[in-house]
Design a protein that fits this description.
Strand content: under 5%
Number of helices: 6
Number of strands: 2
Strand order of the largest sheet: 1-2
Structural class: mainly alpha
Radius of gyration: 34 Å
CATH superfamily of one domain: Translin, domain 1
Order of helices and strands: HHHHHHEE
Amino acid sequence: MPPPPAPKANASGGGPFLSTFAPLGAALDATNATREALVKASRDVTIASKKLIFVLHRLDVADLPPPSSGGPGDSAPPHAGLDAAAASAAAISRQVVTTIGRRLASPADAVVHARTYSPGLQEYVEAVVFLGWLRTGGLTSRAAVQAGLDDALATVTAEAAAAEAAKTNAAAAGTAAAAPKPDAGAAADGTANGTRAPPTTTSPPTPPPDGWC
């Protein structure tokens, strides 16, 4: 029995299966790049959240105001330390949205990379829950944590839209400033930019055709 024919190389010089596996290789490279970015983002969120937790641990409990009930019309009393911690928590929420959320292009990505960014989210939730306990004396619900992330997403989106609008306005202003302007004396002698306009002639009115009325 004669041996099977050897596979023919394609035009690019690779094997016959190169065109089949090239898209798979590109998808794998993209997945690995996303994973590496999420590892770094999760680590940064973890570090920021731990710093916030350490700040909360250093607060003097005796100096804290009585916790609020969290009900309608019952807001947490002002406190410099807790207010600063709340601002830090809001900044971390924006960090979660911009560094982790933007890397998850679809729900499938969120599932595939869940173990990659989960440590950062866990530390973030711990910091938010600890802050909420110092504020209200109770546990922060999952809905409240999600609401904080939704608010951060809305803030980031609004800031991006404002920056884009400012960029567009600046470009339009620069274009208007660069446009040539007519000479100051153009209105007096009918010239513009040093060029005299041709004389205007008035044609006699065209008589109406016969039988028009």
